[in-house]
Known about the structure:
The protein is an all-beta fold. The chain contains no helices and 10 strands. It has a single domain (11-98), classed as SH3 type barrels (Roll), CATH 2.30.30.30. The protein has strands spanning 11-14, 23-30, 35-38, 43-48, 58-63, 65-67, 71-74, 81-82, 84-88, 94-98. The chain has a 6-stranded antiparallel β-sheet, with no helix packed on it.
Amino acid sequence: MAKLHIKKGDMVYVNAGNDKGKTGKVLAVLTEKNRAIVEGVNMVSKHTKPNSKNPQGGIVKQEAGVHVSNLQVVDPVKGGATKIGRRLNDKGKLVRYAKKSGEEIK
Length: 106
C-alpha cells in the first residue's frame, strides 16, 4: 500500500470528473481502494430501507469516493491546487509541505 498525499481533514481541489473545479474537505480516506470521500463532491442517490435512523426509508443523497489521483491539496497560503512534497522539519520529523508556497501542511 502506497503512502497517499491526502489525509482526513485536508482541503482538496477536484481536478477531473463531473465535479471538476470544486473544493471540499476530506471526510475519510479509503487507503485500500486509493479513494477519498470529499464533502459535497461526487454525490450519489442511495436507496435505503426503513430503519431506526430513517423510519421513512427512501432515497438519500450522500458522497461517494473519488480516486486520489483526481484530487490535489489546496495551498494553505496562496490558495489553489498545489503538489505535495515531504521533507524533514527542524525536529527531524517527516512532514508534508506545499510545493507552491513551501509552507508546511498541518
